[in-house]
Amino acid sequence: MNAPLPPQALAGSARAEPVLAVAGLTKAFPGRQVLRGLDFTLSPGQATALIGANGSGKSTLLRCLVRLVEPTSGEIRMLGRDVPMLAPRALRRLRAEVGIVWQRHNLVPRLSALSNVIHGVQARMSGPHAWAQSLAPAPVRGEAMECLARVGLADRALLRVDSLSGGQQQRVAIARMLMQRPAFILADEPDASLDPQTGEEVMSLLLDLVREEGLSLLVISHRLEHTLRFSDRILGLANGRIALDLPTSRANPTSLRRFFDHAEAA
Amino acid sequence: MTALAPARFRHRSLVEYAALLSVLALVVTSLAATAPAPEKLGSGFARLFAPSGMLTQMVPPDFTRIAPIAWKLLETLQMAVAGCFLGLLLALPFAILATDRLSPHPLVRHAARALIALFRTVPDLVWAIIFIIIVGLGPAAGVMAIMVDKIGFAGRFFAEAMEETDPGPQDALRAIGASRLGIIGSAVLPACLPSFTATSLFALEKSVRGSAALGLVGAGGIGVDLKVAFDLFNYDEALAIILLMLLLVVAVEQGSGWIRRKLI
């Protein structure tokens, strides 16, 4: 069962400015149209699951939102900024406010968990003191330890991340994302490479951040049960279009299955 | 029924046969034009071992001037260490600029790659002659020559190591708005550290071997003494110098091998 929405999400969702507003978004690669005109908005303080079969364009959409992949056309307004129009410096500032959790955790394997978490501070400051825990000033180290404690890994701070389990590495990646102090979280199948129990813990951790910190979350989900348990709203992508948009409480598992069926996508 | 065995060799086209013949012709003509005649080689070896021959006069080696030779060996090692250190230091920015993912612009990348190729292609003896003209005879020219040679050597291997690193951590940092320098310092350098260490130690070994030869053109180090010993027909002293050089090179190789095993 879903945890209750935070007060700001319930009260303000109707009138507060959306964290994300997408209109007419398209993305074409040579010989292939992936996104065919998407329109949707996300309210603050909500967890939204983005579902769709393999190749439906979920990851491309996520990358287009912060211009890691340049969209072909359309409007994206995120955290009050017109994303396609942003100059490189302004784009960097926007990205600093958006935490991304990847399917692969993308940590630097030879460094400690603490150093990897400290890398998150590069969203706010630059210079060698943000490169490794041994160079970081005391307040940054302290904040990084708090982030590690938030994901339950404070006791593993000085271990090399490649000595941690897959689930622990994903938690370190989430702690690095917290170090950014993000206003909006994008997560690309954060539970994909994890066993069911660890995947559930990671998804639960992300939902806790939405509930307790009032953050907004757009998460690509490839597990039906996680979609139903860890989101407030579901967006379904099919053939490059939004084919489903409904509150999770009204979702019917049977009707959602087609978004997880790889054969239908092909 | 027994299955037929496949053909022993793959069928080749006429073009492939022509290419093979061309390579063979190149090898044969090269050997014919440049390789020494067996009888000439035989008489040459006989001269070496004759009572007045060089090898005969080399034995036993003459260590009477061991103190000045040892100082020159130390100078050779210092030239190698100083040149190698400066070269590795400068190789890093060149390598960053030559790397696809880290270079600020394709033109910069091409320019950096061209310079690295130039530094690598021109032999260190030629660099030594150029720097003798600039800074005069002595170890400083040798240090500069080793430095430039190492920019070419390490620049290429550093760039290759950076190209081969997992792009994931770099993309993750780019996605949170990290600067180019931040990505290099946080993700690229830590990932490349084992490879950089191995390359640096090989560069040091190469520098020690190379620095001994640089003295032959007047760029300092033990090479000067070796040349003088040969010029004055002091072959026994030349053998002593060669043996001490061998000792130095083996010591450096053993030391760097030990460090490599400890660090990587």
Automatic annotation (TrEMBL), chain A:
Spell out the Pfam families in the cross-references: ABC_tran
Native species: Tabrizicola soli
Domain of life of the organism encoding this protein = Bacteria
Q: Which UniProt keywords apply?
A: ATP-binding, Cell membrane, Membrane, Nucleotide-binding, Translocase, Transport
Q: Which GO terms describe its molecular function?
A: ATP binding
**Name of the featured protein:** Phosphonate ABC transporter ATP-binding protein
Q: Does the keyword ATP-binding apply?
A: yes
Query: Record keywords: Iron-sulfur included?
Result: no
Q: Where does the record place the ABC transporter domain?
A: 20-264
UniProtKB/TrEMBL annotation, chain B:
Identify one Pfam family in the record.
BPD_transp_1
Top-level taxon of origin: Bacteria
UniProt-listed InterPro entries: MetI-like, MetI-like_sf, PhnE/PtxC
What this protein is called in its record is Phosphonate ABC transporter, permease protein PhnE
Which family does this protein fall into? Answer: Belongs to the binding-protein-dependent transport system permease family.
Q: Which Gene3D superfamilies match?
A: MetI-like
Recorded topology in the membrane: Multi-pass membrane protein
- Gene name of the record: phnE
> PANTHER family from the xrefs?
ABC TRANSPORT SYSTEM PERMEASE PROTEIN P69, PHOSPHONATES TRANSPORT SYSTEM PERMEASE PROTEIN
Q: Which UniProt keywords apply?
A: Cell membrane, Membrane, Transmembrane, Transmembrane helix, Transport
**For the ABC transmembrane type-1 domain, which residue ranges apply?**
73-254
Q: Where are the transmembrane segments?
A: 77-99, 125-148, 183-204, 211-233, 239-259
Q: Which SUPFAM superfamilies match?
A: MetI-like
Which locations, inside or outside the cell, does it occupy? Cell membrane
